[in-house]
Amino acid sequence: MPETTTRPRAGVRGRARLRRPSVPAPLAALLGAVLLLGVAWALLVPPFQAPDEQSHAGYVQSLVEGPGVPGDPGRAAFSTEQLRAQDAANSDQTAGNLSVNPEWAPLAWERWRQLDASLPGRFRADGGGNANPAWSNPPLFYLYDAIPYAATSGADYFARLTAMRVAAVLWLLVTTLGAWLLAGEVVGRDRLLQLVAAGVAGLLPMVSHISAQVGPDTLLYALWSLALWLGVRILKRGIDVSSAAALLGLVGLAILTKATSYALVPAALFALGVGVWRIRGERPRAMRAAAAGIAALAAPVVTWFLVARALDHSAAAQISTSSKGGGTDVRELASYLWQFYLPRLPFQTSFDPVHRGLPAFHIWVEQGGAAFGWLEVRFPRGVYRLLALLVALIAVAAVARLIATRAQVDRAVAAFLLLASATLIAALHWTDYHNITGGSGAFMQGRYLFPLVTIAGLAVAQALRWFDGAARRVGAGVALGGLFAFQLCSLALVATRFYA
Amino acid sequence: MHRRSAPALLAFVLVAVVAVSGLALFGGGDRRDLAFTLGVPSYYVTAPLAPGHEVCQTPVLVSTAFTAVDFQVDTRRTPGSRLAVTVLRLPGRRSLGHGVLPAGYGGTVRHAVRVGHVPAGGEIAVCIRNAGRWWAGIYGGPGITSRTSGERLDGGPTTADLDLRFRRAPRSTLAMVPEMARRAALFRGSWIGPWTYWALLACVLLAVPALIARALARAAAEDEMPGAG
Fold this sequence. Notes:
By secondary structure, chain A is an all-alpha fold. Chain A has 21 helices and two strands.
């Protein structure tokens, strides 16, 4: 992806020191659009009709109302108040079932409001058990979403849920900002390409949907996008104490958000290592940068491990569970990978007897492209075939551009981005394989790729670099118009599924 | 419009207009007759009705006015017994509507029985009486599927729910937008109402494309500034 920019930077940086930093006008306008669409998603999707939202909301309520970080085996998964809310809105019956609708009767809503108003406070605090599937997650996102929950604690349950969703949307703006900054480092100060790259991250409907629910993924995407930008920045501009601490600190925070983020550690250490190696002649400076980076990574992670131990809570349950599930048979693992991406051969044992066709298509394209609600709200199959074709075309164009301009490619940056992508995908497959062989069922979901959405944005920008002048501007207009159209159709699909 | 930004803006506007027009056309042509549903699947016969027997689903919250009740019947290879459908207002059991499925339909299929106009609001009981000569089985699912109502066979509660769907005259999705806004505004918090969704619709259809167009125009203009490329 990365082509070295030949534009002079010193002058720009020098002027920037003298001016108060301001948000570039194209970015500000894009962030406005992303915010409006994010709020639309937060208010359109019915309560608890997003993956595991009831579990994440239960975690936040347990933090605010008591007993604290969930995981007590002697308690119920969710509070009485939340269970009554789920019941009143017909949430559990609607989840994943296209023949059922959420509650549409105004009378049911009125009755629930009267019931909730008369509910004693202790029924908000009787959840927090380890039957909550999210109990093993680290707490960072939940601590964040506890703020809007607490701020609206005088309101009814659904108002608190809505406030938590809207607060979650703010991280989508950070993801978009990270994509803009990353593209700026990679393609230089090319506003159209930056805009397209940031637009992909901020306007993809599935990213909006997941970012507008109560759940840690929105913070995960934001932290990954900033970490990828900082990693590239270190590789292009050099390392110092603050950039090393910022990069590794972000990785530490990402680990406190979701265990998936351990996959970011190798790439971050690579950027730190290369950065330090390049200034090895200045030994004290190199040592300070390395120490700052390691300390910034260790501080949040070690603190969380100590707190988790004190609370008798798992610090990285997902990782320990996936490494225990089943053994690792190399031939079986290779067969699993083959079947994920290629048609199964006659002598291979099926890993996915449920779905016909390629898991890569079902999961990466269908689920990752547009599968709303609990993944059951989808477009007709033909839409996904078109989407797969489009993604393949963009990928081929981006890779071809890299090859054509390989002399200008910053190899360290390319290696960093490749390492981050490959580690995440490998970790996902490793977990999926062990979950299946361990009897826990398939783990993989399309949205698990979204921490890399800023790299997808870079790929689209890279593909556009085949064009110059007016053709490139038309390409940018079509790309953003296509994203807007995709958003519009997705919102309409969700609205008709739940309310028509 | 700046000369350099014109191609980007024109391309964006063209795609956006095609998308909005396409959606409007689709919404105008997509017609639906579902008023509301209990959300119970037809898993098995939950109400085996010998001649003269009756099953009711009660109490049902009427979220939307309807004119027909739709359910699935099994006839066990008989010609199909005459079934009488009654809609009763609760409390009091005053009749709000009545309809008949004439004998002779046979097989295991869904039937929509017209019962007259039943207005939205309040609670009802929907009763199906076997008014014919043969056995008839009404389909439904386990009792947990409808949270607020339950099946009663000859007055006694069962552990099942009837699969009832309530129909009305077909209308386009576009015509249903006000109704969809009212439905979406439930279970959100007291400060949110249908007006919120009208405001969101305006934002998504007007403000969002305007902001993206502005972003494109400014990006193209900034790329033209000295030092940019």
